[in-house]
Design brief:
- It is a single chain.
- By secondary structure, the protein is α+β, with helices and mostly antiparallel strands.
- It is built from four helices and seven strands, in the order H-H-H-H-E-E-E-E-E-E-E.
- The chain has a five-stranded antiparallel beta sheet with strand order 6-5-4-3-7, with no helix packed on it. The chain has a two-stranded antiparallel sheet with strand order 1-2.
- The radius of gyration is 16 Å and the shape is elongated.
- It starts with a helix and ends with a strand.
Length: 127
Amino acid sequence: MTAFEELAASRRRWIEEVLRPWCRTAARKELRQADLEWVDLAGKVAPEKSLWAWAWSRFPALVHCELASIDETAEVLVTLRDGRQYCGYPDARQSEHGQLVLAGSDADGPADLGPFSIDDIRDVEKR
């Protein structure tokens, strides 16, 4: 094996064993800091397809793994840490920088719900 192949393998291991797991547990503030330095940390990969997809993957019902993005095709029930619950369809375009927005309804009819910080969400279930 060449030195370059070893270097590339080491980098892939670091991404899978260190960076991805960190994204799944880091607080929103730390994720936003990483977003600013993402090219230096992860290389030329878009943060929304790596950093944020990996961060949201702590809630498997919310992420479409093959597309590396928030899955907008299924209605979800979001439970916040304080026990409040919201039901709707995730809006990937509006859900930025660790803030989830749902297309749902309130007492007045159709409405955007949120944004909900990734730090405030306890659970996400598909309906």
